[in-house]
């Protein structure tokens, strides 16, 4: 008997192990993509060698102004331009950078300009020296900024610096980096300015959190009414409610958008929250949970003078705590990952939620896949934290009613 049981368990555990590997493979691939630099993104199936691991995607996600190895288009040409900038009579931003280099870095530039050969250690050494120069507030003078065709955001920083306004360290580095991109356009690629990742994260937390709280209140209130009150046409109303769940959401997009537009809620977070305030699925979920509450308990509450809302708030909700955890987790994930409706209703970049903001990094003329993967990995973390907090209630909610007695 033991051998027979073991013969069944071994294939079963092996199948579960294979399923676990297949389930985790996309997650491992996602993590691996975040630690690759842009040159290695499509070169390795999973993780690159230890010497190639990089945090560049995370730095770029928030718009790091500092140079990365992949942003130097031609090391030999850059070294030659630096050596040329250090020659007699040279001036301008290039000369300012050369003056900040140490003897070792100047020798390295000379060798690279002559041979064109540079190893990863040499790249890291030169990048550290260049980024140290980029971070200096005294790198550039007013005359160095005059006559340069700077980009819009860099031009605004240059105007502030020329007017004597103080710049934050991050703004100083961004200004210096933008000037070097203009001075050496063939050698230094234009850096990715980043996205307001923090703002998008806050927007998503607000929309998903507010929507779930309002949904939970109305769904539990409606579920309590359907479970514990008897009124005319109750069965017909429930059938109509179930029928609405069978209508694809995409069919309702056009009339819903017109309604939200006429209400003046387009391009606002209220336009995302108001249509999702009531969930028919949530009502039936809470109805099934509250059917288990004995009617005698409610009658005892009424005899003690408890109001109908008090019965709901003080008796029905505490009993339905496992279902609240399960509903909040499922509802939060749905609203957190929502893409189609926010893409339609939101037009201002300051209001974008995280899925919409991350989608902006991949377009026809710009493909920042590594940065998008890094943002996607960070976007998973809030949902993971919420699951760890609510996992006990989630499991209890899923198994509610599975055993009688």
Q: Can you characterise this structure?
A:
The chain has 405 residues and is mainly α. It has 3 domains: 2-54, no CATH class; 69-183, no CATH class; 197-398, MetI-like (MetI-like fold), CATH 1.10.3720. It is built from 20 helices and no strands. It has helices at residues 2-34, 56-61, 75-85, 93-100, 103-115, 120-134, 142-145, 152-162, 169-183, 197-228, 234-245, 253-262, 270-273, 280-290, 295-303, 308-319, 321-336, 340-345, 354-359, 369-398. The model has no long low-confidence stretch (mean pLDDT 85).
What is the structure about, briefly put?
The protein is 65% helix and 0% strand. The chain is an all-alpha fold. The protein has three domains: 2-54, no CATH class; 69-183, no CATH class; 197-398, MetI-like (MetI-like fold, Orthogonal Bundle), CATH 1.10.3720.10.
Per DSSP E runs of 2 or more residues, the count of β-strands stands at 0
The topology string of helices and strands comes to: HHHHHHHHHHHHHHHHHHHH
Helix content: 55-70%
CATH class of the largest domain: Mainly Alpha
N→C terminal distance = 33 Å
Q: CATH topology of the largest domain, what is it called?
A: MetI-like fold
Helical stretch count?
A: 20
Uncertain runs are none
The geometry reads as elongated
Return the CATH architecture of the largest domain: Orthogonal Bundle
| Beta-strand fraction estimate | under 5%
Tally of distinct domains: 3
Largest sheet: none
Radius of gyration: 30 Å
This entry's quaternary arrangement is: single chain
């Amino acid at each position: 008997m033991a051998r027979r049981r073991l013969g069944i368990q071994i294939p079963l555990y092996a199948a579960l192990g294979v399923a676990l590997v297949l389930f985790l493979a996309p997650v491992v691939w996602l993590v691996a993509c975040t630690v690759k630099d842009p040159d290695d993104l499509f070169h390795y199936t999973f993780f690159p060698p230890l010497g190639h691991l990089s945090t560049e995607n995370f730095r770029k996600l928030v718009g790091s102004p500092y140079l990365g190895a992949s942003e130097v288009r031609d090391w030999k040409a850059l070294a030659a331009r630096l050596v040329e900038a250090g020659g007699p009579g040279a001036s301008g931003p290039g000369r300012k950078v050369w003056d900040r280099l140490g003897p070792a870095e100047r020798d390295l530039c000379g060798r690279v300009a002559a041979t064109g050969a540079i190893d990863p250690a040499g790249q890291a050494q030169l990048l550290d020296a260049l980024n140290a120069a980029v971070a200096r507030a005294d790198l550039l003078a007013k005359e160095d900024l005059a006559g340069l065709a700077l980009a819009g955001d860099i031009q605004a920083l240059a105007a502030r610096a020329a007017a004597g306004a103080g710049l934050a360290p991050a703004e100083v580095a961004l200004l210096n980096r933008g000037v070097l991109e203009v001075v050496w356009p063939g050698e230094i690629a234009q850096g990715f300015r980043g996205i307001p990742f923090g703002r998008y994260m806050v927007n998503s937390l607000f929309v998903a959190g507010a929507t779930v709280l309002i949904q939970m209140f109305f769904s539990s209130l409606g579920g309590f009414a359907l479970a514990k009150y008897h009124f005319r046409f109750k069965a017909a109303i429930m059938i109509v409610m179930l029928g609405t769940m069978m209508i694809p959401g995409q069919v309702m997009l056009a009339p819903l958008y017109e309604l939200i537009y006429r209400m003046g809620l387009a391009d606002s977070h209220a336009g995302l929250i108001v249509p999702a305030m009531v969930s028919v699925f949530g009502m039936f979920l809470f109805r099934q949970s509250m059917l288990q509450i004995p009617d005698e308990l409610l009658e005892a509450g009424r005899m003690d003078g408890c109001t109908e809302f008090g019965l709901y708030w003080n008796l029905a909700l505490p009993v339905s705590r496992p279902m609240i955890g399960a509903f909040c987790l499922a509802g939060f994930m749905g609203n957190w990952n929502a893409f189609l409706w926010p893409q339609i209703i939101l037009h201002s970049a300051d209001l974008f939620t995280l899925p919409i903001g991350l989608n902006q990094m991949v377009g026809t003329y710009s493909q920042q896949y590594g940065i998008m993967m890094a943002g996607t990995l960070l976007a998973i973390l809030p949902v993971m934290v919420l699951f760890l907090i609510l996992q006990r209630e989630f499991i209890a909610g899923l198994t509610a009613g599975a055993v009688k007695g």
